[in-house]
Amino acid sequence: MKKIGVILLQAGYWAVYLLLIVLFDIVVSLTAHRQFVGRRFWWMFWHNPVWMYLLFPAVVAFYTSYSVLFPRLMVRRRFGWLAFSMLFGVAMMAVIVVELAGLLTGVSFGLSVDTGVLVVFLSVVGLVNGLLGLVIKGFVTWVGEMRLKEELNRRNYEMELALIRSQLSPHFLFNTLNNIDVLIEKDGVRASGYLNKLSDLLRFMLYETKSSLVPIGKELEYIEKYIELQRIRIANPAAVRYTVEGEAGRLMVEPMLFLPFIENAFKHAEKRGDDAIGICIVLGEGRIVFDCKNRYRGGAAEGGGLGNGLIRKRLSLLYPGKHTLEIRAENDLYQAKLILDAKAN
């Protein structure tokens, strides 16, 4: 919980408490002529500062519980010592307040029923405020822990996203550089074009992905360049089929959301035949349908080497209740179909 929130919470508590003191004074003033447990008891209230009886014990008990008892006893679950400390502390404080009131007024109260009632009354005031101090401190601690957990979840998500990027970038970069190196001797102009595409991709991965959302048009450009660079090492041009249907419009999407599936397809596909890899993206009003298929030999790998579990977790964080992911592996066909309710800018 932020410091300003804690200050406002405590200020509100004491404002309410002071209001109760004022109401208590009003009630006492209206009934002062009545006998309660002796006129001397009420005389003590009216001829001594009210704060000494109602405010001083409350403040001491509250902040003793808030700052000392909660972190040292409550957190460590030493409930026996906590109860003893509170009861003994408020009783001693009540006696001290009564003695201090006697010194200020010059009246020696001594041992009497009125004095006993006053000690018990002040003890109850201190005990109630002490318990409320524990409750408020517990609430502040709970809110702080919730904020910490949220921050940890956010950091974990950022680390997972960074892990995805770090897993994609080196693997893709080294393969592409090797392919371009081979191509330089055969066709320098074509190799230069691929280097420009690679530069654009790296710029996108390093800078554009820092935003939580990017226009779907930029994401499609990134995917198209990625596919073009992957085509360098594919002998059969018909092995990869990539289509986009619909208009991008103002749709926004989380960056690098589809790439793990595409990378997985290129990594495990049998690329000799036609349509070994099929990627289709359909854009609609507030909706994106991504369909990626590849033919493979042996077991189908899980998306991007990071696993479908991590991909599903990322989707659940980014699009809770707003996505559908279906992954199937039948015969020699591996398919991942993702439907998103996309946001518009």
Helix segment tally: 9
H and E order: HHHHHHEHEEHEEHEEE
Instruction: Just give the CATH class of the largest domain.
Output: Alpha Beta
Query: What CATH architecture of the largest domain would you give?
Result: 2-Layer Sandwich
Strand content: 5-15%
Radius of gyration: 36 Å
Number of domains: 2
CATH homologous superfamily of the largest domain?
Histidine kinase-like ATPase, C-terminal domain
CATH fold node name of the largest domain: Heat Shock Protein 90
Main β-sheet: number of strands, strand sense, barrel status? 5 strands, mixed
Strands in their spatial order, largest beta sheet: 2-4-5-7-6
Estimated structural class: alpha+beta
**Shape annotation:** rod-shaped
Q: Tell me the distance between the termini.
A: 33 Å
Outline the low-pLDDT stretches: 34-46, 300-305
Number of strands: 8
Measured as a percent range, the helix fraction is 55-70%
The average pLDDT value, as a whole number, equals 78
Explain this structure.
Helix 3 packs across helix 5, helix 5 (113-186) packs antiparallel against helix 6 and helix 6 crosses helix 7. The chain is built from nine helices and eight strands. It folds into two domains: 3-149, no CATH class; 187-344, Heat Shock Protein 90 (2-Layer Sandwich), CATH 3.30.565.10. By secondary structure, it is of the alpha+beta class. It has helices at 3-31, 39-46, 50-74, 79-105, 113-186, 188-206, 216-230, 259-268, 308-318; strands spanning 214-215, 240-245, 251-253, 277-284, 287-295, 323-330, 333-341, 343-344. Helix content is 63%, strand content 14%. The longest helix has 74 residues, at 113-186.
